[in-house]
Design a protein that fits this description.
Blueprint: H1 13-20, H2 24-32, E1 39-40, E2 46-47, H3 52-64, H4 69-77, H5 87-118, H6 146-149
Antiparallel strand pairs: 1-2
The structure holds FE2/S2 (inorganic) cluster (FES).
């Protein structure tokens, strides 16, 4: 028996999951988060427009490069409801996000370099470890991980912090 045609060749959750490689539970999550939309049939079953495949690809690719869901949602909200980014829109969005990616890559490189001083040390000294928070002095600058969140070159300096090459020095080991 032939499969009944659906308006605009809509996809069931199972079909969309099979075509996109995204689990049905994840589809429901993305829908709750406002990233994709469905309509309900008379029997209260979800039906997704075929364009949702491309929209899901956009979401997955964006997530893969570390873009938070809130930003992905905000980007999609700049498009007409239900519209999927076309080639030009995706190019514009990805260009905008490249700046953020560059910033995060710089942060990770800085953390990796700081961590190099800690490997094999283990002191976690509040006085000398670059990855520790000396005396919780950074707490006065606001909530959250102040060093980890800071832009490269603009990391907040706690009162009395050392600068230059002395700023990062493994804790001397006894003996
Ligand atoms: S653990 Fe970071 S300098 Fe010792």
């Amino acid at each position: 028996m032939a499969t009944p045609t659906r308006p605009g060749a809509e996809l069931t959750p199972g079909e969309l999951a099979a075509r996109s490689g995204v689990a049905v539970s994840a589809l429901h999550f993305y829908e709750r988060e406002g990233l994709i939309q469905s309509r309900r049939t008379d029997g209260n079953q979800r039906r997704y427009p075929r364009e949702t495949l491309r929209r899901l690809a956009f979401v997955r690719v964006s997530q893969r490069v570390g873009i938070p869901l809130a930003e992905i949602r905000a980007a999609l909200e700049t498009l007409p409801r239900g519209k999927t980014p076309n080639r030009a829109e995706w190019a514009a969005l990805s260009e905008r996000w490249r700046t953020d990616l560059d910033r995060r890559i710089s942060q990770l490189v800085r953390l990796r370099d700081d961590l190099a001083f800690c490997i094999g040390c283990g002191c976690l000294s509040l006085d000398t470890c670059a990855l520790a928070n000396p005396g919780d002095a950074l707490g006065a600058l606001g909530p959250g991980p102040r060093i980890l969140d800071a832009d490269p070159g603009s990391a907040p300096e706690p009162p009395g912090a050392r600068t230059g090459k002395d700023a990062v020095r493994p804790h001397p080991r006894p003996g």
